[in-house]
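Bump. Still looking for hydroxymethylglutaryl-CoA lyase structure tokens.
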Amino acid sequence: ALADQVRIVEVGPRDGLQNEKTSIPAETKIELVRRLAATGLDTIEAGSFVHPKWVPQMAASDKVLSSILANSPRSQKPITYQWLLPNSKGFDNYFKIMNTSPSAPDGYPTPPPSPGNDSGPALNTSSQDPNAMPSATSGAEAMGASSNTSGQQHEVSIFMAATESFSKKNTNCTIQESLDRFAPLMAESRKAGYPVRAYISVALGCPFEGPDVDPHKVADLAASLLEMGADEISVADTTGMGTAPRTQKLLQTLKEAGVRSEDLALHFHDTFGQALINTMVSLEHGIRTFDSAVGGLGGCPYSPGATGNVATEDLVYFLHSLGAQTGVDLDEVSRIGDWITAEIGKPNSASAGKATLAR
Ligand code: HMG
Ligand code: MG
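Sorry for the wait, here they are.
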């Protein structure tokens, strides 16, 4: 097999839903997280603490977080939940909930063993953590989950862009301002025991500057973010403009800049249908972590025309066909894709999901 083990970061509850125009009830978002937790996924990006005027759909993320803390979703293994935070206000709003949750009486969950960049990928340390937050035993209704409920861990995600135009549109600041803004927040977060994931948006194409984003700019940013203490960089093809040759060039440039494949995740939107081809190229470059959204949901409100993330169902089917293990149950995740797309009134764009359900 090209890869033995591949880790999937399910971004459906955040990237998948953030662009939906009609308001989705918090209960539906919570139910989505609960169902996803029972599929064998171990990392779920569950919401964001951004400005509600900028992204109204994510305004209920506080309810989603509180619900997860109060009543841990059932899962076969400990789940890591990620929260997208744009600035100090977002950090404050997130920490406020973590600090007042009865499940986290000491304020913060126990810090995972030192997530330094020299000790390999720091994510997913939860399974070794004997002090992981206690988990509730209710929530048994979630899609035939196994009876042993596991613990939970939380991580924060920050995001910046590889082009100035996108940086301004998405976060109202320059690239340098966002680096300056995040440096102290990342340090604070890691000190509190939350590993930090950092996204670099528009790495393979920008809605305002076109497809030819400088790969050296992406590599410089990735190196700076790792130096600042990021535990993982998610390199994002926001617009889906990435092609196999340009993905190859970008990964080569990252490697030449000294960025290790273990520190990278790739985040493909499938606007031009190139996500799985680009995943293949990434696997050949040693990448073993990929982001996807159930049902192929997703899109960034500040990237006009961009459509969904690669569907988790399609990614899982593809990886399994290569002999790679993901731990994800394709049937379960296919049912969830069907359910959530119907729930929000969108077509299910996961080909492998639909085909799996039809057989
Ligand atoms: P701004 O207007 O420059 O904010 O927005 P500000 O710092 O000037 O503050 C203005 C007001 O907003 C203040 O309130 C703040 O308190 C409040 P006032 O004093 O006027 O009453 N405020 C907030 N309120 C709640 N939560 C907050 C917050 N921050 C400030 N966090 C800001 C700057 C970054 C906040 C805004 O641009 C924003 O929220 N952007 C987020 C956009 C977004 O979420 N985009 C989608 C996610 S990124 C993505 O999808 C890409 C990804 O998937 C990877 C890929 O595919 O590329 C990750
Ligand atoms: Mg995205």
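Residues 105-149 have pLDDT under 50 and may be disordered.

Edit: fixed formatting.
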